[in-house]
Design brief:
Layout: H1 6-16, H2 20-35, H3 43-50, E1 55-61, E2 64-72, E3 79-85, E4 91-98, H4 120-126, E5 131-133, E6 140-146, E7 153-159, E8 162-168
Antiparallel strand pairs: 1-2, 2-3, 3-4, 5-6, 6-7, 7-8
């Protein structure tokens, strides 16, 4: 997220009582674990790092039955870190989602979309028919939509499912 919103990341570090050095060290440790041949993979990796999830939900997506593991976040109490786990423990998605029972923002125009205000699902619901586009990294998503107030086509960019910025679409 620091790639897109360095000022917000600095504010978040202060709110968490952390330094840039703490951030770099946490990132270094995570990258070492992700690349390790001996560290657990799949669901076990998240359980080892994050502990037991706050909630586990059974989900059916098409023909696939899976589990959603949800962890609270100190920085964003209204969000949860969600890891989707297929049968056998394989992780196929991880991102931020609105916490159950938390009020979701209801953007009506592109002007209502500010960094870190909405998740992928919330923007897709607010601007039907939003079109998913391929992201430029495994933790990044994009949605194309038309602003109903202006008719302008936008692309919303997300990191870990949280809105980072908007572009006007070229098409």
């Amino acid at each position: 997220m620091a790639d897109h919103q360095p000022g917000l990341v600095e504010d978040a570090l202060r709110a968490l009582g952390a330094t840039r050095a703490d951030l770099r060290e946490a990132h270094r440790r995570w990258q070492a674990m992700v690349r390790s041949r001996t560290f657990p993979h799949g669901e076990r990796r998240y359980l080892a790092v994050l502990g037991a999830p706050e909630a586990t939900e059974e989900r059916r997506i098409g023909d696939l039955s899976c589990r959603a593991l949800l962890w609270p976040l100190p920085l964003w109490p209204d969000l949860r870190y969600e890891v989707m786990v297929a049968p056998g423990g394989r992780v196929w998605n991880e991102w931020l989602v609105r916490a159950p029972g938390s009020p979701a923002p209801v953007p009506r125009t592109a002007a209502d979309l500010t960094p870190w205000c909405c998740t992928v699902d919330e923007v897709a619901r607010a601007f039907p028919p939003a079109q998913p586009l391929e992201g430029d990294a495994p933790t990044r998503w994009r949605l194309a939509f038309t602003d109903p107030a202006t008719g302008v086509r936008h692309v919303a960019h997300f990191t870990y499912g949280l809105l980072q910025y908007l572009d006007e679409s070229a098409s």
